[in-house]
Amino acid sequence: MSLTLTDIQSAADRIKDGVVRTPCLESEALSRRLGTSVVVKYENLQHTGAFKARGALSRLLLLSDDKQRRGVVAMSAGNHSQGVAYQAGRLGIPATIVMPKGTPFVKVRKTAEYGAGVELQGDSLEEAATFAQTLAQEKQLSFIHPYDDDAVIAGQGTTALEMLEDKPDLDVLVVPVGGGGLIAGCAVAAQGLKPDIEVIGVEPELYPSLSNALNGNDRPCEGSTIGEGIAVKIAGKKSLPSIREHVKQVVTVSETSLERAVSMFLSRDKVVAEGAGAAGLAAMIEHPEMFAGKRVGLILTGGNIDARMMSSILMRDLVRLGQVLTLSIAMPDKPGQLYAVAGICADMGANVLEVEHTRFAMDLSASAARLNITLETRDEAHAEQVIDRLTHSGFAIQIKDPTAP
Fold first, then answer.
1. So what's the architecture of 5-51+150-316 in CATH?
2. Which of 2, 31, 84, 187 has an alpha carbon 20 to 30 Å from 381's alpha carbon atom?
3. Fold entry, domain 323-400
4. Which residues of the chain register pLDDT less than 50?
5. CA–CA separation, 73 vs 95, rounded Å?
6. 54-144 has which CATH code?
7. What is the pLDDT of residues 17-69, one digit of tens each?
8. What is the pTM of this model?
9. Where are the alpha helices (DSSP H) in 287-331?
């Protein structure tokens, strides 16, 4: 039986006391940057920092009293696990969460803090799912699937239900895609309220699982992605009918676009987004022609990102924009050279972040030294001006990647 708007409205009524009605606001900063109207649903402000708390509660509330007493088991790379752990804790339901071994520490830690037992098993979602299903059978636990479950899909769809109630003038809804539960629910809800709205899915180019399922392709789904929350190899079967009927298109985005989107959310919109949560914005960055002149609704699906990962992404983006660069300068080993370089940088308005000076570079003569100097500049053009000034002053310069070891 196909999911309906009524199913999602019923889920909304069922979960209303256990989830946050998150803000759905126009982002002036993103709208200016992208040249079109951008509205963001900030699900990073949801319980556990992600939309997954909706579907988890929707499913848990439909369990019989006996099944609730026995307990539940779930598998996830993070946000579903936290959603199940949090909502099960609220309801007094014992919960065991199975997570792949490579799950970010912040998600493992938070899941345990919500009171669930955590099992790290398998090197992929699929291997973790196999272990979780075996555990469910052995201990007679209810398995709470992260996306291939009608009640979970209906719960996720309440996200779009709220968006269209708050912002009924949206032209297009852009939804991150992993297993397909969120986009299936949101597409049914959105077009149930506004039949002419376009729904576009976004998945990492390394994990085109939904594109494969819709188009009969067999492209590989593998590799390291910052969108680990949507790094799914096989899309859910129960979501496919709704997706085929209501979703206009599914696009893929590069790792670079995901990184840029995470950075843009923080620097422009002043909010934290994880890689998967920023996929909608990544699509606008990589495919701007699709959204020109339209009022676009983005779902920032989650903000659970490791601090180390965020730091790396921000630094890489500064390098990409030419705002941070490291110059390797060969110079005569005599007094005044370091002073001369620093003086030029100061005169040009560049900020010196780090300096490394060595007399033992084996590719230089014994009468020479090497200076590695990391600079902060206004932009790429400013960086080029600094380099030109140093070059015209007689210094031999190579540009290094400051993020490299």
1. 3-Layer(aba) Sandwich (3.40)
2. 31
3. Alpha-Beta Plaits (3.30.70)
4. none
5. 6
6. 3.40.50.1100
7. 999 999 999 999 999 999 999 999 999 999 999 999 999 999 999 999 999 99
8. 0.87
9. 307-320
